[in-house]
Write a structure and sequence with these properties.
Layout: H1 26-30, E1 38-42, H2 47-63, E2 68-75, H3 82-96, E3 99-104, H4 114-133, E4 136-139, H5 144-156, H6 161-164, E5 170-173, E6 176-179, H7 187-197, H8 213-226, H9 231-259, E7 270-273, H10 274-278, H11 282-296, H12 304-319, E8 325-329, E9 332-337, E10 340-345
Parallel strand pairs: 1-2, 1-4, 2-3, 4-6
Antiparallel strand pairs: 5-6, 7-10, 8-9, 9-10
Helix pairs in contact: 2-3, 2-7, 5-8, 5-9, 9-11
């Protein structure tokens, strides 16, 4: 038995040896790239994003035509070796015939919530670069294993159905398409692909740092798989949640059109027929309320638990004697008046007296 045969990173479900990604799979994986003039491939130097770059370049060469591809690395400046890893990605880009640029996260770094802040900074830098280049899309190396972790992470934090749909193969952020062509592939197959091609990669040490929730979930993954909660099962669960979420979003579209008392316009209050709102299934009412608050609020998406509490307050008013209702949430004012549920921007908060 070779050393590779004994490497657990090259083992797929039930201990089967993971096979490299074949050339016959590339067209199916990268077909979504064809709808964009260019695609930026986010590459950290880890196995997932490195495999994404190698496979995308192989696909583009085989086709002989298609979108312009380029590699982009975000150096967060959080670890001493990050600059060296960015240079390794540059060398990879040269080897596979693609351009490369390193983007830097400048400024002070937070002392808590570092991973969340780094993720937000990464997307901000990537989308700005894509817009500047007119690329239209960013490719990300998320895998089946990442999808499973996301489901567990969101479940542990009490996410609703939309959150449990986890990552989508294609989504949008700030007007830029986010493509995840490897979302259906296990990490072991990507590592096998790189080993077969002799392409080196690095492992981010924070991936094994159990101070972070996702690292702790990785420790639990083999135990959960033994109980039937494998990465493939969790990803299937996410797809089913996405299917249900899509149906509920369409039902919410229809409900909004049916009970809306005025067109939904930026800067204008959302006015809904109160009696009609009360007849909606609670999940549809919750989504419609969330949309109205998102449109008129100034503080980002409202927390699900707070939305649920407000919805119950509204239904309580509908069941009893009409009484004044005026609440703020996420920078939006939600009020009941004259048979309407009205959501508008909340008044600016008054500042306290200046200290002398």
């Amino acid at each position: 038995m070779s050393a590779a045969d004994g490497d657990p990173s090259l083992r797929g479900p039930r201990g089967a040896r993971a096979e490299p990604v074949g050339d016959d799979e590339l067209e199916g994986l990268f077909a979504p790239f064809l709808g964009h003039p260019g695609v930026l491939i986010a590459v950290s130097g880890g196995p997932d994003s490195t495999a994404l770059a190698v496979l995308a370049a192989r696909w583009r060469r085989a086709r002989g035509e298609g979108p312009m591809l380029g590699l982009v690395t975000v150096d967060h400046g959080l670890r001493p070796g990050s600059a060296r890893e960015a240079e390794a990605v540059r060398a990879l880009a040269d080897a596979i015939g693609l351009s490369h640029r390193t983007l830097h996260w400048r400024g002070a770094k937070p002392t808590t919530g570092v991973q969340e802040a780094a993720r937000a900074a990464r997307y901000r830098l990537l989308t700005a670069e894509a817009k500047a280049r007119g690329s239209g899309a960013i490719a990300l190396g998320h895998t089946l294993d990442d999808q499973a972790e996301t489901v567990l992470f969101r479940l542990s934090r009490g996410s609703g159905l939309s959150g449990l749909a986890a990552m989508r193969p294609a989504s949008r952020r700030d007007g830029v398409a986010l493509l995840r062509p490897l979302l259906g592939l296990p990490k072991a197959r990507l590592i096998a692909t790189l080993r077969a091609a002799g392409v080196p990669f690095v492992e981010d040490p924070s991936n094994g740092d159990t101070r972070y929730a996702r690292a702790r979930l990785r420790v639990l993954a083999p135990l959960l798989a033994d109980e039937g909660l494998s990465a493939a099962r969790l990803a299937l669960f996410a797809r089913r949640m996405a299917r249900a979420d899509e149906a509920l979003e369409r039902a919410t579209d229809q409900a909004g059109a049916r009970i809306g008392l005025a067109p939904w316009q930026a800067g204008a209050p959302v006015r809904l027929d109160l009696a009609g709102f009360g007849e909606l299934p609670k999940e549809i009412g919750l989504r419609l309320l969330a949309r109205a608050i998102d449109q008129n609020g100034r503080e980002g998406p409202a927390e699900l638990a707070k939305l649920e509490a407000m919805l119950e307050q509204i239904y309580a008013r509908l069941k009893g004697e009409p009484s004044p209702f005026r609440r703020t949430l996420a920078g939006a004012l939600v009020a009941i008046r004259r048979g309407e549920l009205c959501v508008s921007p909340a008044p600016e908060r008054r500042k306290g007296p200046a200290s002398r």
